[in-house]
Amino acid sequence: MIKLRELENYLANLLDTSAFSDFCINGLQVEGRNTVEKVVTGVSASARLFKAVLERKADAVILHHGLFWKNSPHPMALRGILKERVKLLLDADVSLFGYHLPLDAHPELGNSALIARALGLTDISFIPSAGIENPIAACGELPEPVPFQSFKDHADEVLNTNGFGFDFHETGIQQVFVLSGGAGNYYQDASDAGADLLVTGELNENNIRAAEELNLSLYAAGHYNSEKWGIMALGEHLSDRFGLEVEFVDIPNPV
User: Fold this and answer.
1) Which residue of 81, 95, 97, 154 could cross-link 62, Cys pair, CB 3.0 to 4.6 Å?
2) Residue 233: exposed, middle, or buried by beta-carbon count in 10 A (0-12, 13-18, 19+)?
3) CATH 3.40.1390.30 fits 2-99, yes or no
4) Is a pLDDT exceeding 70 seen at residue 131?
5) Any bridge partners for residue 44, and if so which?
6) pLDDT digits over 40-78, tens only?
């Protein structure tokens, strides 16, 4: 068991939340009961997930994609779907934490770092990306160049998905730039880093021709599939550190 404020402060320090200017609140978004013994982790906020939290009688839920976003159509209004989601938590006195860029960037628990290591990359470095103060992309290399299709087959197996792939590099894939989530627009960052391939979660239509012109191959695992890694690792860390009961609730989403 841990006090809510102790958990809040520990996570703020662990993930260095004050170092990030983000699109959302990083930290405690909904305040519930004063102590935490059981935690549910998940990728994204939804009524379906919150109902699972209540079924498990958890004291808190920790997410990568929380509730409150600056680019929401109505960021200052508690209405509609948002109101119903918050009501589920408040009625049950359950706390909600959300960690976005800090959980992408962490060198041990971050999405990009974990994916890079799972793919077998070595000599991993963390490099800045346009518009973001702290490095959140992981760049590394495979032991030897491999054909694009071989890399895609390996990534599909490792990430448990059927990703989108576009082979635009003229030779084998060795240098790989990993940035989870919706990072298809970071093709120039990947090219500038000397990468043969950009691994991300989702792509926009305009990314394809730009990457082709840069001779940069693309692989997209799905936004959700690329961002399960950090939140699962964070839950395991909290379980080990504080003896909390932590359960990851997977609500699959191919996008």
Assistant:
1) 97
2) buried
3) yes
4) no
5) 65
6) 999 999 999 999 999 999 999 999 999 988 877 777 788
Averaged pLDDT for residues 168-190: 94
Please state whether beta strands 217-220 and 164-166 pair in parallel, antiparallel, or not at all (unpaired): antiparallel
The backbone torsions φ and ψ at residue 80, rounded to the nearest 5 degrees and listed phi first, read: 60, -135
Three-state helix/strand/coil letters over the chain: CEEHHHHHHHHHHHCCHHHCCCCECCEEEECCCCEECEEEEEEECCHHHHHHHHHCCCCEEEEEECCCECCCCCCCCCCHHHHHHHHHHHHHCCEEEECCHHHHHCCCCCHHHHHHHHCCCEEEEEEEECCEEEEEEEEEEEEEEECHHHHHHHHHHHHCCCCEEECCCCCCEEEEEECCCCCHHHHHHHHHCCCCEEEECCCCHHHHHHHHHCCCEEEECCHHHHCCHHHHHHHHHHHHHHCCEEEECCCCCCC
CATH number 3.40.1390.30 given to 104-223: yes
Instruction: Report the distance separating Cα 212 and Cα 176, nearest Å.
Output: 16
Reference 139, options 177, 109, 173; nearest CA is 177
All structural domains of the chain with their residue ranges? 2-99, 104-223
Nearest alpha carbon to residue 152 among 139, 143, 161, 141:
161
Provide the pLDDT confidence category of residue 222 given band limits of 50, 70 and 90.
very high
Residues 70-124 have pLDDT tens digits of 877 777 788 899 999 999 999 999 999 999 999 999 999 999 999 999 999 999 9
